[in-house]
Amino acid sequence: MQPIVLFDLDGLLIDSEPIWDAAKREVFGPLGLHLTTEMQAATRGLRQRDMVAYWFDRATIQADPHDVEQQIVAAVCRRLEGVALKPGAEHAVAACARASRAMAVVSSSPESVIRAALASTGLDRSFHAVFSAEDDEHGKPHPGAYLRAAAALGASPAECIVIEDSLNGVLSGASAQMTVVAVPEAADRCDPRFAIATLVLESLKDLDTSVFGAYVSRGSRDATWASRAADPQPFREPDHAV
Fold it and tell me: Considering 10, 67, 191, 206, which one is annotated as catalytic?
């Protein structure tokens, strides 16, 4: 049985992390929070409400968190036109389309950002569905978004392959008990925590879908997983999540 392939978006398929970083500096700067490169990396892979809450917990910011979140999302959308694909993105998407029975994007970004980015790059024609963790009770590294995507696509976690670039995303896919392919940025590649992934690649250009069968269970679907995905309460965020 062919697997379901679930792609992250930001920093994996599209080179949008600099866009998000610039948008956060634009909004947080006038509020007195000046984010360094290291500070930006600390919240990589989190959805926006969790990222905003992270900094409101650590700095004195005189503003409404929801307004800050919406300003950042709007600033990102203004910059998405012409966003570049990450190296190997077209190869990976095309290869997975041939090797899977369905593909979806599962992202921490709001759905409006996901769809705008996919339309801008032409990747929107390649995916059967998009799933945003924006309205979930918990964002990545909680596995809820990936479990919800699997259930919606009629698959058990054992039939799913997650492709992620951030540690929070890798933890999310691993917590969902899915096969995880990690493609971390060069600066993060030596982080030993990425060892939780099934496979670690330097680039999407190195993705070889012929290995999928070695990792993904070809057994019959387990309907109990779908019911657990609908209510991810039995799962908790890993204690070592960043």
Answer: 10
Element counts in the chain: helices (H) and strands (E): 10, 6
Selected catalytic residue, list 8, 67, 188, 239: 8
Per the annotation, the verdict on 165 as an active-site residue is no
Q: Considering only 79-83, 152-156, 221-225, which range has the smallest mean pLDDT?
A: 221-225
10 is catalytic: yes
Beta-carbon contacts of residue 37 (< 8 Å; ≥ 6 apart): 21
Would you list the DSSP string of 38-57? Answer: HHHHHTTT--HHHHHHHHHH
Q: Please report which confidence band the pLDDT of residue 146 belongs to, taking 50, 70 and 90 as the band edges.
A: very high
If phi > 0 it is left, if psi is from -120 to 50 it is alpha, else beta; for residue 140 that is: beta
Q: How do residues 161-212 score in pLDDT, each as one tens digit?
A: 999 999 999 999 999 999 999 999 998 999 999 999 999 999 999 999 998 9
**Residue 242 in tokens:** 């960043």
Helix, strand, coil percentages, rounded to 5, for the chain: 50, 10, 40
pLDDT at 236: 34
Report in angstroms the alpha-carbon separations of 69 from 8, 24, 102, 133.
Answer: 20, 9, 32, 15
Is the alpha carbon torsion for 53, 54, 56, 57 positive or negative? Answer: positive
